[in-house]
Request: fold
Amino acid sequence: MLPDTFFQVMSITADLVLFLFVGHYMYRLYNKEKEIEKREKKIDTEYHQVVDDALTKERRILEDATNEAEQIIADTQFVSEGSKNEVDQALEDMKADIRKEVSAMAQSYRGKYQDSLVALTNESLQGFKAVSTELQESLQKQVAEFHKTMLPNLEKELDEYKQSRMKETDQTIRKIVQKVSQEFLNKSLSIDDHQKLLVDALEKAKREGFFE
Amino acid sequence: MDKLDVSYFMKTKSQANDFSTRLSKIIAHLYETDFNLEKELLDEFGIQKKDKIMTLLRTNEVNIDKVDVLKVFLLKMQDTIAHLPVLDITIAFEPKEKTLQDMTEWFIMNIKRQMLLNITLNTDIIGGAQLGFNGKYFDASIKPAFEKALKETEHPQ
Reply:
């Protein structure tokens, strides 16, 4: 009976020790967890603080930059407007000057051109008059020469040609008249007439001694 | 043999040439074994001329059975034709057979010999005839008289 009790005591003791050990361990684990949570919370707080600071700084920088940019733009616009007006004015002035100058130059050139044109016209006219006179004289000379030498010959040749053509025409007409008359007379004779004329021709030839 | 009268067979020079050519053909057949004179004459000249030639043979007492005699006679005919005088004659109308016959007869009657006519047609002479014979020329046409009349009309005196 003793050993059983012993063992029972021993077992209860061991269970107790184990329970205590596990309890102690659990308690330590709990403390560690609490500590970690605390540290996490701290880190988180610090992080948020840093972020908030950074954001605040960023916002401030942006605001400063914006203000500065707006100032620059305002200044620039002012300068640009002024410059534009000045340039416009200068261009207008230049334009007016150029227009004036061009007009003066054109006037000058027109005058010079007209003068040159008048001079050239006068020169050409004189040249043309000279050529015309020369041509007229040459033509008069040729006409006179033609009247003196060629015309009589031409008239003579023309007359001869006319005579020759008239003669040819006469001959042609004569031939036609003769041919037509011969044909007409020939056709108007009957076969008997022809035969009679043939016998007459033979008789005449015989009388003339043609067959001897 | 007397002089042959061949005037019936030909009036013109071209007829004479044709006749003579046909005679030559007959002469060439004379010595053939189946030679038949009447048949040959009939073939070449027709019945009328054949009869006339047969009459001429009889008149001239030619023995047609003797080929040599016949040949001499036919050659004589050709010779007579070759020696017939030729008259170049220009007339103004197309002559009919009767005209040719009349002219041939006129020559036999008036000149006492046969003439072969070498005829040319020319209406320009109007009527009558222009003749050429033995190198001579004779104008018995109306043309000279017509030209004279025409000239007188053109240049009246």
